[in-house]
Amino acid sequence: MKKIFVLLFCVTFLCLSAQGSKNIFSKDPIINLENFQKSRVHYGFYLGFNSYDFKIDYKSVTTDILVQKTTGFNVGIVGDLRLHEYINLRFEPGLYYTKRDLTFPSNPDFANRTAAFREVNSTYIHFPLLLKLSSLRTGNLRPYLVGGVSATLNLSSNAKLVDDNLQQRFRVKSWTPNYELGFGIDIFSEYFIFSPSIRGVFGINDELIRDNDPNSPWTGNIESLKSRAIFINFTFH
Question: pTM for this one?
């Protein structure tokens, strides 16, 4: 995640530099795309990064399941509807790739280390419906807050399989609801708007599908398993 934050800073800095310090920070900057924000509807696209985690609650006190996160990739489109001068409704469907490695605590039922390890590859189609609350525009900069709800379809859920962890199949539900909160900044260039943003995504419901054996060493002691994620997106309008 440190690398992601450094990348976010560098890209934003380069975009600001491209605009020129005089154009952005002077008392009388040249106002770019002055009427763009008055458009009723506009569209865009985004590219970005994600870091997914699992929030795991247990039925009884035990050694935690270790979750190793990786950095994934996002790509999607944006539809923006202006409701008010400072309020926009946004729909941002996208495709998200990620991977998490789970290491279960040692258990005599595990024949070897391979049995205690699960690689969870996920391909998500993400459907967020968000409210964007913008501040007053200052020159060619306009910070904003964003929040809302979303639904996620996991194409790699294994939900329809009969096999479970005994056959090395880690299963989760196909659909999960979430809520999202974040912030960003609109940077108005001469020809387009560049918007770096960061957003937290929090799964609402338990998404784990338990093993067929209720006493399974993999899922028997898990009360709930919910996805958590950080999205860093670079949007272009």
Answer: 0.83
